[in-house]
Amino acid sequence: MLHEVGASNGAPGASLARRSVVEGLGTAFLLAAVVGSGIMAVRLSGGNTALALLANSLATGAGLAALILAFGAFSGAHMNPAVTLSEAILRGRPWREVPPYVSAQVLGAVAGVAMAHAMFGEPLFSLSVRSRTGLPQIFSEAVATFGLLAVIFFSARRDVAPVAMAVGAYISAAYWFTSSTSFANPAVTLARSLTDTFTGIRPADVPGFLAGQAVGTSAFVLLARWLSGRKNDDPHP
Amino acid sequence: MLHEVGASNGAPGASLARRSVVEGLGTAFLLAAVVGSGIMAVRLSGGNTALALLANSLATGAGLAALILAFGAFSGAHMNPAVTLSEAILRGRPWREVPPYVSAQVLGAVAGVAMAHAMFGEPLFSLSVRSRTGLPQIFSEAVATFGLLAVIFFSARRDVAPVAMAVGAYISAAYWFTSSTSFANPAVTLARSLTDTFTGIRPADVPGFLAGQAVGTSAFVLLARWLSGRKNDDPHP
Amino acid sequence: MLHEVGASNGAPGASLARRSVVEGLGTAFLLAAVVGSGIMAVRLSGGNTALALLANSLATGAGLAALILAFGAFSGAHMNPAVTLSEAILRGRPWREVPPYVSAQVLGAVAGVAMAHAMFGEPLFSLSVRSRTGLPQIFSEAVATFGLLAVIFFSARRDVAPVAMAVGAYISAAYWFTSSTSFANPAVTLARSLTDTFTGIRPADVPGFLAGQAVGTSAFVLLARWLSGRKNDDPHP
Amino acid sequence: MLHEVGASNGAPGASLARRSVVEGLGTAFLLAAVVGSGIMAVRLSGGNTALALLANSLATGAGLAALILAFGAFSGAHMNPAVTLSEAILRGRPWREVPPYVSAQVLGAVAGVAMAHAMFGEPLFSLSVRSRTGLPQIFSEAVATFGLLAVIFFSARRDVAPVAMAVGAYISAAYWFTSSTSFANPAVTLARSLTDTFTGIRPADVPGFLAGQAVGTSAFVLLARWLSGRKNDDPHP
Fold this sequence. Notes:
homotetramer, mainly alpha, Glycerol uptake facilitator protein, 9 helices, 0% strand, disordered N terminus, disordered C terminus
């Protein structure tokens, strides 16, 4: 769906190079929103973690919805390798588009962490020492990713607005209903290892999160195929 | 309306079995959102119940809106036996669909509690000892259910998006304006007796809540028929 | 606009009597949301007034948006005499409809206060002793009412959904940006004198609030006419 | 887009003079919302700055969305010289419209500060002594303005509703993810030097903020042209 919005766009502005740049830009702003709002929230909340997470989760969800609305028409606004991969598997997005999209997402995410740090006068990068480990958190990532893909792929309509709002609302909620605070995105996970602030993740814990996200993505692909009763096709009945 | 969205869907993906599975899946995520965000909120809020309920109510409403947008096109996304029953009475949904829908909702709700517990490293089930009793709370359930059905059935339009947002907004609000925090859903009520956390309900108090919900549903059905000036028909004028 | 939605509705369900009942029902739920969420917020927030007002303002705005979506198609969902009056002046709503609408709104509002009290185990009515007085608060009511009418009348479109969301968002905001917490509604003002809780207003202070609302309504009517360059007609250019 | 909504409006109500008045009125309400909710938040939050900023950011975002929905059809609801300027550069809005729009925005912003102060019983104007300085905050303003323009110009559609919600969501988020709390608006910046309250800015720090906003606007104009592959034309592919 997001795919279709982008794909219906044969103008020069929608060349693969330009779409990849937009993916990178969107993902950079996403990380700036996640990491930046986490820094501000901790600075102001004086140790009240519930209040810090409330601000962080609302800012992330609202920012994400706005970014999807802004960039959806250019590139589909995946900003997430799990989404790009699922589009290739389920909707026939050309596989040759996956590497540039995913590269742009990862590079954009890393740049977004630096943007957030620069906005708050921190060193551009710093390795996180925040432990995020254990089976419950890895299971949380599987659940969060599965749910995110369901929201993105099943709430598809001609207009991007309801999808954008659904994704923003889902992520704000999933910050709270998972013990991992719902990264649900491999590019976000990698980049957040480079910030030693509220939203960071210890590099050693990244593989577990990625594994959980892979399980969630696989489970969603199986569900989507079963629901559509077909293979390699649009999951919408 | 939600019904129509689903019913207009004669593809294999919309078979009764598949729609029931989607109902179960949606209700599981709903309970994961309710129970999981309650656990997270209590863990972080350090005894500040207002802050815990704020996070819990926002996460529930936002998650619910996203789930309706995601699953509405497949099954109608009732996720609530009171909604399924009202559809059968007011809109001619076939009665033979009610048992599989309601079963899927109850099983999904129970599974969702286990999902939440697993995500937070808790035992899969634990009986609640949280007292929720007294006439004011039972009356609250009647009011909350009546209002929820009015929002669902009267805000019906061709597109599911406004309904999803209205239902999410309503539930976030009703957490605060009822003394029962607005369960308004028999499947949710049963399942929440199986969690000894913030959002639990003592099994002994379940019948009172179900009675309140039954009163609210009956009152709404009478109103809808009176407003439509007909019987056994679509309540929209 | 809301008017047109209702007026295009010539079915028996849209008779003046039924529409008035729906106005009363909607206004009752609005007051239940305002007063009920105020009671819950104060009970849980342990003296933290900012947190109490945050919950109260979000619950009111979200509930209001849901109610407009639910009841807009039946009666226009004014739930506010200032809106009904402005419709008669600016859009030719028949003057004979004003008395039943306004009566239903006031009666519904009073019933809603009783509903909220019953849900929280309080006496059905209690005179407020909360002082809300002084020129800044009266000026606040003028500003709040002017802005509310601008949002309702100018954001009119064929679909009720954007209007509902705009009104809910506006009221949540206006709780904070006015010193009166933005009653902006004569029926709400009268009814809130009957609750000795967080959202109450001392009966002696009601006339000042009504005066401010009258000034705001008059100023908006003048603006709408000037913008339309006509008199007694739809203000939309 | 917002431009087109207004421009498609050839009725007398859309004369340049009337549109400028509406711009001024909208900007006045925007400043009333920003400054007023900041005053209320500080008064109630008892030194909890995170809670104060949460209320301030939610009220501003919600109010802004409502104002765009209300006034968008009349004037485009820029309420921001950076938006008006970008429209002239990128979409061919006549340059002769820029001075009256920008004048109205600045005058409206100043009047809005006085409105807020009057609603809270403060002197109509007071010079801010709040320091907002340093490269991180100036860089924040560049990022915030760039992102705001991307949200406004790229999320354009026939209907104003998604744009309004995207802008409101973006600003609520950007309050948190920038160290400057995202003024992103020269008229707002000038006017906020006239309030010695939570949302004020020391006059001496205004030029730095304006410089950051100019950098962000320039960068966005370059991006939009590159994405459209044309010059002086609609950036939408």
